[in-house]
Amino acid sequence: MHKARQGRTGGPRLETGPLVRLGFVPLNDCAPLVVAQELGIFTRHGLRVQLSRELGWASVRAKLAYGELDGAHAPCGLPFALALGLDGVKAPCCTGLVLNLHGNAITLSRRLWDEGVRDAVTLGERQRKHRGEPLLLGAVSRHSTHARLLERWLAPTGLVADRDFRIVIVPPAQMWANLRGGHLDGYCVGEPWNSAAILAGDGWCATTSCSLAPRHPEKVLAVRGAWATAEPEVHERLVAALLEACRYCDDASRRDTVVELLARREYLNLSKDLIRPAWSGAFPISRTETRQLPEFNCFHRFDTNEPGPEKAAWVMQELFGAMMPALPPPEVLSSIFRMDVFEAARRRATSSFNPANTTDSDHEPQTLPA
Length: 370
What we know:
Blueprint: E1 4-6, E2 12-14, E3 19-24, H1 31-38, H2 41-44, E4 48-53, H3 57-65, E5 71-75, H4 78-84, E6 93-98, E7 101-102, E8 104-109, H5 110-114, H6 120-128, E9 135-139, H7 146-154, E10 165-169, H8 175-180, E11 186-190, H9 193-199, E12 203-208, H10 209-212, E13 219-224, H11 225-230, H12 232-249, H13 255-262, H14 272-275, H15 277-280, E14 282-284, E15 290-292, E16 297-298, H16 309-320, H17 330-336, H18 339-352
Helix pairs in contact: 1-12, 12-18
């Protein structure tokens, strides 16, 4: 019999097989990793996983590049940036799973609201009266959708980058504090860092990513290319386990459990009241107004999880189009967005998971040590 032990982020593991080191940044969309760890899905797929909480995407990128992590919850552009050396660091990297669609919003400061800003048009009007005072807007990574979503939202205003606004990189968990302190005028970030600022009265929601770019890929499971080559079966089992966890996260009847798990100190370490809005379908626009957005979070619906060629092309065109004269050839894209791994993992997941036969008792959260 294999000996079970408690991992540093909770959940019993079997001491068998190679250890898989996975990084995550404390955001709502790390939920599939948390669910798979805490509800024993990794273990059932024969995996021994160690989760590592990271401050931001720069840390994830560096640890993947230099082999300190085997894989990570990561922005959809990060595997391309590493594999193609688009920011000066080149390291083989790929993904066999898209973890989610959407999940971001643009939050602006209370000061801008008090000055009459209500949307992109009125923001443009405001800035034309304040030429020489560029807005400072936060995004979380050069390899993510966030800066592109800000640019897409601002495009109709005629505002000019570096003259009328500047986009700076800020770790997700530091966005709210910088907005509250007056160091940022707004930001695009994943949840719960929009809801946190909005519910505290420090900001308001200008728009959401599901409105700006419907069904765009957001986070992926990025893995080191060398690890994927050395551990192909483990890689397939990892993707299969997370595919099952993505199904769980998209089940509305399970979302209270997901929120409870995310709130734990090992993960987001926040009040459930700040985490829950994005899962409820009623997203806060201000302290007193909500908007029904049932597609704000998508973890499995709409073929979310397939790392297909259309998603790969979208990521390259939207995030890196200005850096490259043409898309890489299809064989290069398919070596980074790995449909072959996804298909093999989906067969594994289908054979081991039947939602009709799954009850809450099959997925009881593990109790963490005091």
